[in-house]
Amino acid sequence: MSARSRGGRILGRALRIPTVLDRKGTRWLLQGLSPAPVIVLVHRGRNTGRVYKTPIEVMFNDRERREFVVAPMWGRRSDWYRNVVAGGLVEVHLRGEVRKVQWRELDEAERRVAMETYRAGRPMYSRIILRMLVRVNGFEGDPEQAMLEQVPMLALRRVGSSATTA
Q1: Number of domains in the chain
Q2: For residue 80, what are the domain limits?
Q3: DSSP string spanning 12-46?
Q4: Eight-state DSSP code of residue 6
């Protein structure tokens, strides 16, 4: 077993911990793991139809448009992103509330505003995260510019007014 594959498996397991914490009684731990709000995206597999729960950090909450912005860590290769684009978005869990949402992909100007807001709100954390994402995805050059050019960002907006508690 190579060190790289072992490291990848360990990282993969560590990244699944938030999904386990998306339960009544442990949800406070989910929010405590990240300085930014964390949502749990519930999506259906594009090939299998299986339902998955994926924790995702909210980059930016646009209160004016009533949307929150998320970006896939692995870029367009992220399974959850490809599932959502294929029509598999089911719902979002946020602070114990279940929300039906619609998504749209942000254009370059909107991605720039989201990135600037994210960096301004979390200067140290965002620098670490951006560098890690550039390294993981093999991007070159300025981390912020690479993210803006290579990583899609989705805006999620609540549909309807009914919400249930998970």
Answers
A1: 1
A2: 3-165
A3: HHHHHHHHHT-STTTHHHHHHT-SS-EEEEEEE-T
A4: H
The residue to which tokens 């009544």 are assigned: 24
Half-sphere exposure of residue 3, counting CA atoms within 13 Å on the CB side?
A: 0
Strand order in the sheet with 67-70: 60-62, 67-70, 154-158, 101-105
pTM of the model: 0.74
Which amino acid type is present at position 132?
M
- Label residue 139 by pLDDT band (50, 70, 90): confident
Structure tokens at 29: 């731990």
Backbone Cα Rg of the chain: 16
The contacts of residue 94 (CB under 8 Å, 6+ apart) are 37, 39, 40
State both tokens at 2. 């190579």
CATH of the domain at 112: 2.30.110.10
